[in-house]
Structure formats: structure tokens, C-alpha cells
Amino acid sequence: MNKSLSLLLAIVLAAAYASAQEKPTAFVNAKVIPISGPVIEQGVVIIQNGKITAVGDARTVKLSSDVVVIDAKGKVIMPGIIDSHSHIGNPAGGDGSSPIQPDVRILDSVNPRSASFQRAQSGGITTANVMPGSGHLDSGQTLYLKLRDNVEKIDDMFILDAAGHYMGGIKFANGTNPIRPGGGAFPGTRAKSAALVREEFIKAQEYRDKVAKAAGDASKLPPRDLRMEALVEVLNRKRTVHFHTHRHDDILTVLRLQKEFGFKLVLHHVSDAWAVADEIKKANVPVSIIFLDSPGGKIEAKDIKAENGAILEKAGVLIGFHTDDGITDSRWFLRSAGMAVRAGMSREKALYALTLGNAKILDIDNRTGSLEPGKDADLVILSGDPISVYTHVLETWVEGKKVFDRSDPKDRLIQTGGYGATNDRFMDTDHDDGGQE
Amino acid sequence: MNHTIIKRLSVFASAVIVVFCASQTFFSQIAVRGETVFTMAGEPITNGVVLVKDGKIEAVGPQSQLKIPAGYRIFSAKVVTPGLIDAHSVVGLNGFLNQPTDQMALDGSGPIQPELRAFDAYNSREVLVQWLREFGVTTVHTGHQPSALVSGQTMVVKTFGNEVDDVLVVPEAMIAVTLGNSGLAGQGKSPGTRAKQIAMLRAELIKAQENARKTERPKDLRSVAWLSVIERKVPLLITADRAQDIMSALRLAKEFNLRIVLDSVSEAQLVLKEIKESGFPVIVHPTMARPGGDRESLSLEDAAKIKAAGIPVALQSGYEGYVPKTRVVLYEAGMAAQNGLSQREALELITIDAAKILGLDGRIGSLAAGKDADIAMFDGDPLEWTTHCTGTIVNGKVASEVIR
User: Does B226 reside within a domain?
Assistant: First the structure.
């Protein structure tokens, strides 16, 4: 390589490095709720290249000379909110052909341009577990998504694990929803529901053993079976089971299945959790719960209590909240925490359930769920106390990019609703700069 | 029976009567003290008290001026408001289990059934009625649901009492009409389009005009119901979300000189001027109603925008087909306060403004001497998510002491 060429290369490399190295942005003067530590009344959060680089007290955190300062005086900053159970993106999983469809991936159905993603951003949500429905014993694989902007395809919202695979779980359900009397392959009773699921997992165990026995010998491998492959991931604790269950006895049925097959489990909805909180704790299984304005609407939810959060907290269970959007609207997901506190939960655990609790439930707490250096710059700027009715979400940031800004009339329309607010969007170039003025 | 025994018996009896009366008197006399009393009939009173006697409000004023007479049961709360009014619901006709056996707000046999009376279907012991009561709701305008062109009648009830006769305030309040998609019948049936909906309504109203001119009026239930509409005795509650449906409702009202109340009005912001000029009141959709279908354009700010335009407006819990089976107007008012209304205005929408639209402001909706003793108590700002309703009084009786 001649001298001038290597000089040119050096210049090119330096330029590339400089553009990759964004200027740091510091949010100052805000009340900061890191979740992972005590509330900081005069806090500073510094982000750079999509990551949080510093969180601390205004009196101790030093700002570098190149920092872009955003004054958040009078505002509250907390981690981006995580929804551990949502149906945004117009997803549709398993069809009517059979009750157990582990091969069906929700990713093959989600519309990344759905306005429901923008509505969720306007509610401060930065991460969601998008799930298929509960009309099956297993309606398919779920998908953990970052609610980034400017997405053209669903891949642009993936959360990748250390091996580079997109992350997601699998949806199961029991109780009345999957039961279809006279529904052919579908179960007609609760006992049949449990039997069908057990049978499928036993098949998966056998498939796993055959694969192990083949020890890589292609001639001995069983024919590829997409259903079995997904369930083997479940058996190997590589794919979490998100189990829709309401009634106390149905919850215990799920715990029994978990004990038999050893899968990673999150209990969802758990309307009767208040009645079996100690059993849930004993099984050491986390829950994802929902706030509803009134009991009922379906028989299984007739005994749901707003006190579930408080009772589970007392029992020492890991708790997350969910919207189940469209059952409740992502835009006022913060209300779940307020209502849980109203019913006796501690403010700390209620906010934890919206953020780090859900991050742990989705196994993404190494990268999001709290304001800590090294984590993704996912944060929400609020006009006041997160659990107050009068508080607005002002800004939502995902990985260092502003994806919602209430001061932008177009974004405000999404948040408050109005004519044209629900139209699905094509790429919104307004946010190309990610708020980096 | 000898004379002495009769005498002894009568002494015993009168003693029983005295004790009974004393206890009755004790429980019908209540004083509710509030650090803030929102009377909704003027400025809030700091350190106020509401005196209740025989089911009515006896007096309201500052504790410094109004002494609590001996023998009154005393309640204390941080904030006291009039009993809340849910201006449009279906609770009591529809139950919380959401099974065919407890869903009575819609009969599917025909698109036009104005003769269906709400009080023939009301379960005053329904869990959802109790649920609303525990959040301070004392009056509900409930009835047939907005899912057919004319689904039936509505009524106004109090939320505390064993049987419908104990709780009825207005037996035939309005007749429920639904325009737009949710008012369409199934495939192949009429109405199948918006234009057909209006044609069918006009036909009914023209017939009613003709019947009104007859010396021998028809006595069938349906004709009688339409006569009460054409003679302005009963208003139509017209659920209309799209601007075009709102305009259709106004056109219909003008053509037949009807009394109407506009319901839901998700696109009201597009036709505010027209609604204002019509003079008709609005019961706006629940603030947190789902945006979809004819309601895709609803806004959290609708209540505030409609109120600011000077249009009479109240809030509702509305109709819910699934989970949750009812909303709570207190929460809906809270969300309206987050989105453009002051705390006081939001409270107006679920008290005095609702009473006015129901034509009951002489009786409920504010704390004033002579009005029904309907009172809600709170341990903080009633609209705040974390505040609890600590007690509800209906017609001077303690209806709830649950902390919600």
C-alpha cells in the first residue's frame, strides 16, 4: 500500500469513527427515577450512541464540553416503559385448524407501520411483548420488540440476543378461551386442555431425545418438525411460556404443568392471583397482571381484584404489568401503576412492575428497564408524578432517539386522538434526526 | 284477655316503637364534614358540612357557621362532592358475567323496538351497580344499549335499593337510537345502510304525526312510544359518532321538531358549530373509549372542546361488550381533566351538568338544601388515580362504606 493511499484510508476511517461517535446528550434538572436506585431530586441522565452513559445527582455528575444539554426542569425522567403482554401491530397467530400451534410465529403477521405502535410510544412504552391471542392452548410464538421509529420491516424492531437471534416467547392459555365445545380438535373441558398440552410436551421430549441420540448424524435425525422445534426450545428453557390464565384452579394447573416439564414461565392476567399468591410464590414464577376498570366481562374475570398487585407484592412475587392492548390502551399504561398504588401496592414496586419487573420477565433486564450506565437509552420524560392522573408523557426515547414528542402536533394527535389519528403510518421522516438538534 | 295484660302489652309495644323510631331517626340524620366540599352550586366550601335529614339535604355550609345537631351520625372526609351521576350506561340491564342470561340491554328480534321498557329488565342487585356505587356514583341513566337502530327505552335510577321500584327516578327517560355502523342490522336485513336507517326512522315519525292527529289513537305499544316522541314528552338519545351521523340526527330533529340528546359524538370536533347552534345537549363518549370503527376519530380532548364551545355536556361510562364490562365515570372525568378540563369542570360533567341534561337538576347534581341527600366522600382529589372513595350516601342512607 502506498503512502497516499494509506493516508486517505486513515482519513476515511477517522471520519467514519467521528460520525459513529455522537455528541453526548444530557438531560438536566429533572427528577430522575432510575428504578434500580433511589429517586434523584436534581438528576442528570447522559446518553450517547444509544446507550446511557451516566445517571446521577446534578451536583456530582460532570458534563463534558461537547455535551448537548436538554433542560428538563420540573419534569420527571424514568426508564422507558415495558409492556409484557400486548397485541399492538395487528398481530394474528394460530388459525382455527388446531388448538396447539407452536410453529406459528407472530412475527409473520405484524404490521410494523400500524398506528398502534405510535400510540404505544405516546404512552411511554419503549418495549413490548407482542403476542397472539388466547383462543388456543398454544396460539404461537411471541415477539419482543423495541418501539423504534422509521421502521420499514418488522426486523427493524427486533431485540437480538447474544447469538443474534430475535427474542420472543410462546403463548399458552387455559380456562374458557381455548375451550370450544364441539370444536373438533379443540378441547371441550379443562381436563382435556391439560391433557392435550401434556401430550404435546411429551412428544417434544421424545423429539428432543431423538435429536440428541442422532448426535449430529443426519441419517439418524428425525424429519424436521417446526412444532417440535419450538417446543424443544421451551423444554430447554430457551423460550419462555407466557401463559394466559385467570381462575385460581387454572393457575394451579399451569404451575403443575411447569413442574412436570420445567419450562420458563410467566403467568399472565391471573385474575384470581389474590387467592393463590402463596402458591405462585412457592413455585417461584413471575406474573404479569392487568388493571381493569370493573370486574367481569367474562366469567373468569369476575373475581379480579385491583389488590392483586399489593397481595402479590406482599407474597414476594416478581410482578410486571401489561396492557393487553386493545383490552386496555397503551396510551394510559402508567395508570396501571397508579391504580395498583390505590389498591395498596407500594409506589416503588408499582413503578418497578412497569419497567425493571417486566424487563426481568422478558429476560432483557441486562439492556433496559432501568436508568443505569451501559443500558439502552430508553427513557420517558413526564410532566409530573408518574402515578398522577394529571401527568402527561411528554417525550419517549428509544435507544437514544426521540420517538415521541408531545410538542409536535402530529405526535400529539396520536396521543390525544382525533381526526386521522388512527391511520397507519408510512415512514415518518420527521424523526430522522432522533431529536439530536 | 284481661285488661292488665293488654295494658302491659301496650306499654311494651310503645316502648318498642319508641326505640325503633329513635334508631330510625338516628340513621336518617347524618352530617358529612369535608375539608373541601364541592357543592357544585357555587365555590367549594373549605371545612364545610352537609346536614342530612329524612333523605334530603337539610343544610350546607361552613362548619364554623353550621352546627351539627345532637344525634346526627357524623362522617368526615377530605373531599365531599354531590353523588356522582353517570349520564349514560347499560348497567343493571347488562350484568358483569357477560353471559346470554345476564345481557338484557338488546333484543335481537327487530331493529325498531321503542316499546321496550328499561325497568322491566333492571336488576338492582347487579354487581356492576354496586361497583359504581362504591365509587360514589349515586344516579345512573341506564337502559337499552346502542347496538340497534331503536333498541328500547332508558331510565334514571338511584344505585342503592333492593328493587327497581325503590330506585326509579325517571321510568321512561329517553328512547335509544343508534346511527352509523353499530346501528346496522345483520346481513340481508334492514337497516343495511345509513340512508336506510334515516328512511326507517322518518317513516316511523311520519306515522306518529298521523297518529297524533287521529281522534281514536292506536293503543299498540310501539305507536304509543312514538307518540311520546313526536309530542316531545320523551327525547331521543341518538348515538352518532361520525360527523355525518351527527348531522343526520340534527336534520331529523329539525324535520320532526324532536327533543334529542346527542350521544357519543366522536367526531363532534368537526361539527361543533352545528351542534352548538342546534341547542341540543351532548353525552360525550367515555374519555377512554377505544378508538375504532365509527369511533376511530375520538379524542381525549372531546369533553373539553365541547364544553368550551358552550354546549351542555355530560360524561358517561357507556356500553362495553367485553372486558371491562363497565367503565367508571369518575375515572373518565379524571382523564378528561388530564386533557383540557379543570378539576372543577370535570366534576361538573359527572354531577350538575349531567343532572341538567337528565332534567333532574332540581333534585340531584349539587349539594343544596332540599335536594336528595346523595353524597360521595373521598380521601383526596376525587379525580386522582390514587384517591379512594370512602363512602357513598344515597337518599340519605349510607349506601357504601367500602374504601375504593
Answer: yes
